[in-house]
Design a protein that fits this description.
Shape: elongated
Order of helices and strands: HHHHHHHHH
Radius of gyration: 18 Å
Structural class: mainly alpha
Distance between the termini: 50 Å
Number of helices: 9
Length: about 220
């Protein structure tokens, strides 16, 4: 199996499994250049420094490489930041504490805050965090699992939730997009349906249902 196909298969499984996916850090492809430009996300909930650290983490969990875009292009960090001001508000304290602890560990282990160290050093830091062996970072494994789960959500969920910018996550795993009906031809297992980049909430029925939930009806 080619490297690109292996990467796509992993991403498909990650998109389906969510937080249950046990993923080695950096397993998806080549490391980014050390001085890669940051995405410049404007953070609504996290402070700027916290957001930079989060963005750097998501960039290593699903990295951009020669085979395609990753969490940076999908704006997974933006998804998480916005959710922390709403549906994930209960996790905000855990994020703030965890991001600060991760930066402290990175400074001890690699000499600078996480966003400012090379990709290979970032991967080493994240492995320690994932395995619960990051000195001075109590509960690091749980923090890693939480961020990994939310990064997967932000990369592959419906763009209506603030991630999966320009449908890059769906393109990455070959997901053809939301459909409300299919033709007999498209139901054949050996026919790949054409891509259709449409959010579920572009359909009136979905949009109306979300409005009713928001209003509590």
């Amino acid at each position: 199996m080619s490297e690109s196909l292996s990467r796509r298969e992993w991403l498909k499984r990650a998109a389906v499994a969510g937080a249950a996916a046990a993923v080695p850090v950096g397993a998806l492809g080549a490391q980014r250049p050390e001085q890669q430009a940051r995405a410049g996300t404007s953070f609504a909930t996290l402070a700027a420094a916290e957001g930079e650290t989060l963005e750097a983490i998501t960039a290593r969990l699903i990295p951009t490489d020669e085979h395609g875009p990753g969490a940076t292009e999908a704006r997974a960090a933006r998804y998480i930041d916005h959710a922390l001001g709403g549906a994930l508000a209960a996790s905000l304290a855990a994020y703030r504490g965890g991001l600060a602890a991760l930066d402290r560990f990175a400074e001890t282990a690699a000499g600078a805050r996480f966003a400012d160290i090379p990709a290979d050093a970032q991967d080493a830091v994240l492995r320690a965090v994932e395995h619960g062996s990051a000195a001075g970072f109590a509960g690091s494994a749980a923090f890693f699992a939480m961020v990994r789960s939310h990064t997967i959500q932000g990369t592959f969920s419906d763009p209506a939730y603030g991630g999966n910018e320009d449908f890059v996550g769906w393109e990455l795993i070959g997901y053809p997009g939301v459909r409300t009906a299919v033709t007999p031809e498209l139901q054949r297992m050996d026919v790949a349906p054409p891509a259709r980049h449409v959010s579920a909430y572009d359909y009136p029925a979905f949009a109306a249902a979300r409005t009713r939930r928001t209003r509590g009806r």
